[in-house]
Amino acid sequence: MSEPERTADGRYVVIRGRRWRATDPSLPEEPRERLVRHLMAARRDIAAALRRDDSEAERRMRDRVGWAKRGLGERGTPWWEMSQDDRRRRWEEALRHLDTG
After folding, report:
1. Residue range 33-42, pLDDT digits in tens
2. Is 97 strand, coil or helix?
3. Among positive and negative, which fits the CA dihedral 33, 7, 10, 20?
4. Residue 2 maps to a domain
5. 14: number of Cβ within 10 Å
6. CA-based, 20 to 30 A from 11: which of 27, 61, 70, 74?
7. What pLDDT score was predicted for residue 2?
8. Quick one: pLDDT at residue 4?
9. Residue 18 forms part of a structural domain
10. 55: containing domain
11. Could you tell me the pTM of the whole model?
12. Total number of domains in the chain
């Protein structure tokens, strides 16, 4: 799979003409991979909850998507406005939450 187009400043990816915040480029590979695994699992679980018409499970999984995306730097305070220490704390907190819940 090819890399998506990025804006000149590198802060956003462009997919089908729409800008989306890019993943924090300083995120180390191992936690990035873990966060992406959590994200994709939660998205699969949302689809399953929708098929079952289980709104409670859907809400829980959407919360997990939110935690994963915040950990990746794609939601919340933009990563380019944060110190490196704050960025690290954010992805560590997201992983603690996702790994235990």
Report:
1. 999 999 999 9
2. helix
3. negative
4. no
5. 13
6. 61
7. 77
8. 86
9. no
10. 27-100
11. 0.91
12. 1
* Cβ–Cβ < 8 Å for 69, 75: yes
Q: E-strand spans in the chain?
A: 5-6, 12-15, 18-21
Asked if 38 and 86 touch (Cβ cutoff 8 Å), the reply is no
Which structure tokens are listed for 77? 């305070």
CB neighbour class for 57 (10 Å; exposed up to 12, middle 13-18, buried from 19)? middle
For residue 90, pLDDT over 90 is answered with yes
Rounded alpha-carbon distances, angstroms, from residue 4 to 7, 19, 43: 10, 11, 20
Question: Two tokens at 89?
Answer: 């704390």
Express each pLDDT in 46-82 by its tens digit: 999 999 999 999 999 999 999 999 999 999 999 999 9
- Checking if the pLDDT of 1 tops 90, the result is no
DSSP class of 98: H
**Three-state SS at 82:** coil
Decide if 3 is inside a domain.
no
Alpha carbon distances (Å) from 101 to 12, 21, 68: 29, 26, 12
